[in-house]
Amino acid sequence: MIYINKEYKVNNIDRLIFLLMAITPVIDILNGIVVYNLKLNSIVSPGQLIRSLLLIIITILCIKQSSKNILVISLIIVTFLFQQYIFSINYNVSLIKEIAFATKILFNVFLLIFLNNYFKLKKIEENKLIESILIGGALVSGTIVITKILGIGVGSYGDVGHKGIFMELNSVTAVLIMCIPITLYKIIYEKKKMYYILLYLFMAISLIILGTKAGIAGLVIITSYYVIFGIKGKYKYIKNMCMIILLAIMMFLFYKIYYSTYMNTIFLRYSHFYNKTDIPTFLLSGRNILASIAFQFWKSKWYHLIVGVGFVRGSEWINSFIFGHGMIEMDLLDLIYFYGIPLALPLIIKLTSLTIKASFMLIKSCSMVQKSLFISLIIGFTISFLGGHVILSPLAGTYFVTIVAYTNNLLRRKKNEKEDLYNCS
């Protein structure tokens, strides 16, 4: 067990969480440098090696926490090995590739197990948690904007958009969108606002030049929510005016600096695909088609329902129909597709039920900091379900499971404190 009565033990774990939030984008930047600048490709990337080491540390911490964790971790690993044994009977299995992909999911799952238990034992102040998460938003947005200014990095879609030197476009979008609500909370309620205003501008600019539909729609919807519903208490109208002025400045800068480029690249790309496809296919960026292709393979063998199709076989099947795609890119469906119902379903049920509870609490809660965390959770889950690369990505997944673990324990604690939660007087 973690002995939380010993102050140095608690502080060390807090520091570990803080460090993990800080180095997560750096690991992906390192991957980008290796692939885009050094032009090196290997089965196992430097990021995977670093995260494998972190996974070992997290696994050890999980095992030390409780005997229940040992049972859960053992069951997951045994199920994975059983899957590989089933495949090896009839197919040539690339165990290295399977393990390399599986570590992405195991990293997030084991981190979720550890943090969920840790937050159950120790109540962490929301603002400290927010500050650690915003480190990720600052590093990601700063990297995108700086690489754009310096003219380095790669486009989001070929020559369209810009994602800096990050590998996964949707993961970067998810990190920034999950950070937007808590940044806006800080702008409205923090006394020292300038850092958070600059951070918001950097993240907003990054989302615009990334050019994803989820990023731009999320930025507009979340910002509108905070301007209309998020400002409460003393100096409400002054804060409203300041927020409107901030938005006006942002829109003016966008129009002057990037509007022409945006209309001739990203918007033109959207218009092309909108005219070529039906509305569901356009909104889901073809993921409905990928899901249909994957389902044909998944249902072809009865044991696929239990152990999935495996990453290598599953990605090769999708890629044989649509070149350059190896996943459905809808995390919950990808989990079932690659690893079967028994492994995927408990996680899916837990995340879905927690998101539903958070949606209700968003309406009922009077605490704006808690509302902001609920919004970040709902956004992370929505992007994970519709756009993928959250649960299956160590970059976005690190921040998402941290929010999930904290929110889960927040709701558990508040279950018997209804008066505190609903009393807005």
User: How many helices in DSSP terms?
Assistant: 19
In whole angstroms, the N-to-C terminal distance is 40 Å
Write down the Rg: 22 Å
Low-confidence stretches: 1-9
Q: For the residues shown, what is the average pLDDT? A: 83
Largest sheet: none
* Backbone structural class: mainly alpha
Report what the structure shows.
This protein has helices at 7-37, 46-65, 67-90, 95-121, 126-150, 169-189, 194-210, 213-229, 236-257, 259-264, 266-276, 279-283, 287-298, 304-307, 311-321, 331-364, 368-387, 394-414, 418-422. It is mainly alpha-helical. The chain has one domain (7-422). The protein is globular and about 70 Å long.
SSE layout:
Blueprint: H1 7-37, H2 46-65, H3 67-90, H4 95-121, H5 126-150, H6 169-189, H7 194-210, H8 213-229, H9 236-257, H10 259-264, H11 266-276, H12 279-283, H13 287-298, H14 304-307, H15 311-321, H16 331-364, H17 368-387, H18 394-414, H19 418-422
Helix pairs in contact: 1-2, 1-5, 1-18, 2-3, 2-4, 4-18, 5-6, 5-7, 6-7, 6-8, 6-17, 6-18, 13-15, 16-17, 16-18, 17-18
Keywords: Ligase, Membrane, Transmembrane, Transmembrane helix
Pfam family, one: O-antigen_lig
GO molecular function: ligase activity
Keywords:
transmembrane, ligase, O-antigen_lig, O-antigen ligase family protein, 425 residues, mainly alpha, 19 helices, ligase activity
Give a short synopsis of this structure:
This protein has 425 residues and is mostly helical. The protein has helices at 7-37, 46-65, 67-90, 95-121, 126-150, 169-189, 194-210, 213-229, 236-257, 259-264, 266-276, 279-283, 287-298, 304-307, 311-321, 331-364, 368-387, 394-414, 418-422.
